[in-house]
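Entry 14. Ran structure prediction on the chain below.
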Amino acid sequence: MTIILVKEVAYLTQWLKDDERMDRLVRADLDIIQSPSVFSYSLDAVLLAHFANVPQGNRSQIVDLCAGNGAVGLLLSEKTKSKITGIELQPRLADMAERSIQLNQLSDQVRVIEGNLSEATKWIEKDSVDIVTCNPPYFSSPVTSKKNPNPHLAIARHEIHTNLNEVMSVTSGLLKMNGKAYFVHRPDRLIEILEAMKANRLAPKRMQLVYPKANKEANILLIEGIKDGKETGFRVMPPLFVYGEDNEYLPEIRGILYGDKD
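Output, structure tokens:
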């Protein structure tokens, strides 16, 4: 579900390359470089950053896998002073994320590494991370889904270069004992998600379902896991509804998107 969340910032066009635009992450008061033909972040990324509980201080290490153009890392920088590292496979997306980091003068806190998440421990020490977030490809590939003809979007949305089990394995390998992981995914893959988490020492602890409207099926799943956590104490949070009957954002969503700036 791709949406326009931010206002274009025309006066910063010197940071842009061909087919790019500058948008505003309103709640975080930051700018982000986007390209409609390559990738634009969606509500999923905003909800993931909101759902993740990150320490406010500067002593933790946070990693965002499948970082895309850096939206989750930028949004998390509003909530913490800790170091944030994004890992993104696609060179153009990693470049866009890096320019957004520089544009917002966040290079001392946030960085992006261009590379495959399977090699994460080349850059980040194993068992050293406090928080991992991930907005992974949602669709299995190629058997049970039709790939997007745009190769950039296909990689972002389909399990071409990674899969659910690898995401969980890499996450577990990076996390310290009792480190926390946060994922956004599709509800129809919940059973697979729970099985992959359990197989990789991630105990599910908290889940929230997001519905486009009150009378519709859930289309977004948010889930938290703890490495080597106890298998008890799993909580299902109240449902989150995005739109009212007038097709406008409901107050809770407006608060998540815009804070007090709307």
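Confidence is low (pLDDT under 50) at residues 1-10. Will compare against last week's run tomorrow.
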